[in-house]
User: What shape does this take?
Amino acid sequence: MFEIAGKHVLVTGASSGLGRHFAKMLAAKGAKVTLAARRVDALKNVVDEIKQAGGAAQVVRLDVTAADSIEKALHDAQAGFGPIHGLINNAGVTATKPALDQDERAWDSVIDTNLKGVWLVANAVARQMVAAKGSGSIVNIASILGLRVAGAVAPYAISKAGVVQMTKALALEWARYGIRVNALAPGYFTTELNDNFFQSEAGKALVKRVPQRRLGELHELDGPVLLLLSDAGSYMTGSVVAVDGGHLVSSL
Assistant: This one.
C-alpha cells in the first residue's frame, strides 16, 4: 500500500534539512524525484548522491515566491520525468526575534516563502494534475508551531497556522479532482541547522518538555510521508499529521 515506485514527486526546498532527506528517501523507494530550490549548486550534490545510489533524480531551479519561476520549474520537471504525481511542499524560512523586534522585511520574507510560496506551488501543481486528468497527492509541510505557539518566532508560527488552514481549504475544493491535500506537522528534529541550539542550556530545557524526552530523527518522518503520498492514505485528505514525540499534548 505504501508503494511509490515510478511516481514523479516534486520536493521544494530540497537543498538541505527536511527537503533533502525527503528527496533521498523517496528516491530510495523508487520514486522519480525532482529536487527544487533556489540554490541549484546544493541540489546537484544531492542528485549526485541519489544517482550513485541507483535512484532517479533531477534538478530544477525554483523560487517559490515567484509565479513565473514556478511555471518554468514545473515545465522543466515534466519535460524530464512526465506528469507530477506528488508534491512535498517543503520550502520554508524563519526569523527568530521577539515580535516587537521583527521588522516588515523579516515578516515579508517569512510569509512570502512559507505561506504565499506554499499556496503558489500547490495551485500550480494542482492545475497541471487537473489538466492531465490524473489524481495526485500534495503534502504541505507545516509545523507543530502552526498548532501551538512558542516565543520569538511569531511570523513563522503565523505562517504555519496559515498552511494548516490552507491545507484544509484546498482539500475541500480539490477532492472532486482526485487530488488529496494533507499536512505534515513535525515537532523538533535533529538537523544541521539546529545542532548548536540543542546543545545549549535553552535547547536542553526544550527537549525536556517533549514527553518522549528526545528530539526526533529524520527517518521517523518517513512513514508519515509515505502514508500521505501513497495509496495507503487514499481516504485521507485535509488531515494534519503531527509527528512530535507528544509535544502537542504536553502540559502547558
Q: What stands out?
A: The domain at 8-242 is CATH 3.40.50.720 (Rossmann fold). The chain has eight helices and seven strands. The CA atoms of residues 9 and 86 lie 4 Å apart.
